[in-house]
């Protein structure tokens, strides 16, 4: 019935917002803004009606959660970096029907997920920043999914992504895009050093690691990437423990996915962290890799999270 037309890994660093304001950072993140606009343009061309964002700034301590209220509007100030994002206005429509479908299918796949359509809960900036530039005209409906998952297994997040794609293809009459909103390596600069690292990665190790991962994505080496994701999430200080990435790759087919990433905004440093905007072609799923691959990912994540 429905279709997932576009999948992407996107940045959401607050300096993107600063980049549009008068001051010393003005224009510094124009490449990221241009990348968002290009992804938004492609979504329009593909007939996307709803963007589902896996948001690594939405922290949850039990279950998975979907914010699918009918409409979102307000002013947002980051409690983490209030000197970067302060009183940023936002507005876009939601999609309660699709949110409920996604939760139901995830539960059917054994991943406990709750849809919140009658809520005052507002999205976090992992959703708000990319939507500011991709959806300024309120063209797309938006759903936010919790992806800063503190006590969750990466295998469940991959299964969640898989289930959400099944929900769209089997039960939804429309076209959807998935965005994994989070960084690559995510080791912030030590307090007092942030200005020095405004355009840099925290260490040569993390920068090298990120570049090797991007090479895997561009080469379509998903079997290697999926095998190393738990350790990459741990040793690369993965944002949200990289649950957004597990959700996205799970939706694409996990280790059997054969698509090659297209970099839209080249890799860049931000306060020590590694950032990118990249699009992944959506190909047919087989599903054969999901159960075995997830068991491996779960075992790996347990081992490294205890280290």
Protein architecture, described:
It is a single chain. The protein is α/β, with parallel strands linked by helices and 307 residues long. The protein is 38% helix and 23% strand. It is globular, with a radius of gyration of 18 Å. The termini are far apart. It contains 9 helices and 10 strands. Residues 291-307 have low confidence and may be disordered. The protein has an 8-stranded mixed β-sheet with strand order 6-3-7-2-8-1-10-9, with helices on both faces. Helix 2 packs across helix 4 (125-134) and helix 5 runs antiparallel to helix 9 (290-305).
Largest beta-sheet details? 8 strands, mixed
Query: How are helices and strands ordered from N to C?
Result: EHHEEEEHEHEHEHHHEEH
- Share of helix among residues? 25-40%
Beta-strand content bin: 15-25%
Helix and strand content put the structural class at alpha/beta
Which strand order do you get reading across the main beta sheet?
A: 6-3-7-2-8-1-10-9
Let me know the average pLDDT.
Answer: 92
What's the total count of β strands? 10
Tell me the overall shape. globular
Q: What is the tally of helical segments?
A: 9
**Ends distance:** 45 Å
Low-pLDDT parts are 291-307
How would you summarize what this structure contains?
The protein has 307 residues and is of the alpha/beta class. The radius of gyration is 18 Å and the shape is globular. It is built from nine helices and ten strands.
Helices and strands, with pairings:
Layout lengths: L2 E8 L4 H4 L11 H16 L4 E11 L3 E4 L3 E6 L11 E6 L2 H13 L4 E4 L8 H10 L6 E9 L4 H18 L3 E7 L22 H16 L2 H14 L7 H10 L9 E9 L2 E8 L9 H16 L2
Parallel strand pairs: 1-8, 2-7, 2-8, 3-6
Antiparallel strand pairs: 1-10, 3-7, 4-5, 9-10
Helix pairs in contact: 2-4, 3-5, 5-8, 5-9, 6-7, 7-9
């Amino acid at each position: 019935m429905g279709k997932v037309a576009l999948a992407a890994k996107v940045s959401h660093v607050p300096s993107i917002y600063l980049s549009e304001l008068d001051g010393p950072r003005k224009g510094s993140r124009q490449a990221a803004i241009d990348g968002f606009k290009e992804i938004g343009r492609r979504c329009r061309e593909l007939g996307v009606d709803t963007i589902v964002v896996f948001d690594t700034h939405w922290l949850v301590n039990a279950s998975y959660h979907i914010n699918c209220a009918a409409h979102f509007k307000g002013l947002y100030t980051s409690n983490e970096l209030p000197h970067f994002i302060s009183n940023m206005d936002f507005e876009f429509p939601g999609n309660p029907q699709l949110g409920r479908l996604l939760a139901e299918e995830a539960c059917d796949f054994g991943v406990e997920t709750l849809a919140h359509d009658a809520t005052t809960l507002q999205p976090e900036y992992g959703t708000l920043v990319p939507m500011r530039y991709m959806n300024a005209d309120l063209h797309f409906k938006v759903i936010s999914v919790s992806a800063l998952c503190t006590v969750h297994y990466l295998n469940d997040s991959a299964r969640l992504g898989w289930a959400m794609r099944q929900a769209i293809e089997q039960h939804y009459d429309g076209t959807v895009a998935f965005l994994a909103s989070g960084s690559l390596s995510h080791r912030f600069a030590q307090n007092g050093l942030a200005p020095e690292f405004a355009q840099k990665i925290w260490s040569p190790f993390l920068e090298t690691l990120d570049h090797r991962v991007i090479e895997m994505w561009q080469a379509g080496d998903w079997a290697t990437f999926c095998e190393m994701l738990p350790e990459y999430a741990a040793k690369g200080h993965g944002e949200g423990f990289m649950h957004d990435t597990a959700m996205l790759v799970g939706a694409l087919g996990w280790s059997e996915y054969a698509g090659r990433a297209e970099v839209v905004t080249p890799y860049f440093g931000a306060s020590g962290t590694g950032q990118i905007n990249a699009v992944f072609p959506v190909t047919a799923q087989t599903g054969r890799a999901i159960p075995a691959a997830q068991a491996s990912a779960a075992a790996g994540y347990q081992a490294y999270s205890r280290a």
